Amino acid sequence: MLTIAVLDMISLTYNSLVVGFLDLFGTHFCQYPVLIYLNGAFATCVWMTDCLACILLAIERCVKVNSKLFLSFLFGKRMFSVVMALTYLYGLYSFIFTIPAIYTSEYSCYLFDPLLGKDVRPLDSEKAYFSPGQLASK
């Protein structure tokens, strides 16, 4: 729970300041590509890590109710340190290797397809967005 709280506080603070700046000036990706890309990568990283931490919390609560659950071994003292390290490594993986959400000031939000509404290709085409690293977060 502490991990989820810290990730949420970091995400809310960081994203509100950066998104406020980007929205205030109506910036687009072409104006600050590195800032927007890194901010999107960070937002995706925190989101995916938070999702995994929430899934682990739900499993842990189920184990508390039924201690004979087959995943109860994950929450022993030594094993849980490994599980949390893997959670943080998953966040690092998402920061480095997944396609980040890009902020667009037209909609004032992060989108995986920043040209939403301007597509000339059908949604079911081969070029539609897909990231296998984000399957657990969707």
From TrEMBL:
The chain crosses the membrane at residues 12-29, 35-59, 80-103. Keywords: Membrane, Transmembrane, Transmembrane helix. InterPro entries: 7TM_GPCR_serpentine_rcpt_Srt. Coiled coil: none annotated. It comes from the Eukaryota. The keyword Ribonucleoprotein does not apply. This is G-protein coupled receptors family 1 profile domain-containing protein. It comes from Caenorhabditis remanei (Caenorhabditis vulgaris).
